[in-house]
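Just curious. Protein, please.
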Amino acid sequence: MKLTKRGEYALRTLIRLGVLQRLGTPVASVSRLAETEHIPAKFLENILADLKAEGYVEGIRGKAGGTRLRCNPDTTTMGELVRVLEGKLAPIGCASETAYEPCSCPDPDHCGLRMLMIDVRNAIAGILDRYSLGDVVTVTMRKMERDGLTPAASTPARQSAKPRTSRKPPASPRHANPVDGFLAGLLNGLGQLKKEPSP
């Protein structure tokens, strides 16, 4: 599974809206979200229209209007969001549980590649379905607090939409470091969100 830019931008926007909701300022303008998340505004408008149609966000009219979460972050799983945005989780169609596509393999029941990709799909689904949008928001905020970053609770429309911070964030790494992962964050005390699998 690989997220498209559309899927990545949508998930980042939902997480940002979740953070703002926790900070007590749940409504954000498209321009503020676009600038904060470095997303082209027109592209974000289309993404937000799709998320609104699916019931995940809602538009608020008026001078202080914008977009806010409509879904409950604590009951909306990341797996649900990824499936709505991207479709199947499996790397190949014949390994998908919800969007199966037959392949050209002469014996799919005994195909080693298919068996391996089913396990990959199960691992991805196991993580995405275990954690909610609210869990990701919690760990995101805890990591920001740990690193001395405090996102702005509100930004007036006529000022810059960039979040204020107490210090500059570290330079972006050139590669993904396993210690910066969500699950590593849980294990290292950033969050206590481990959930037991459903029976």
User: Anything to note?
Assistant: The first strand starts at residue 57 and ends at 60. Residues 153-167 have pLDDT under 50 and may be disordered.
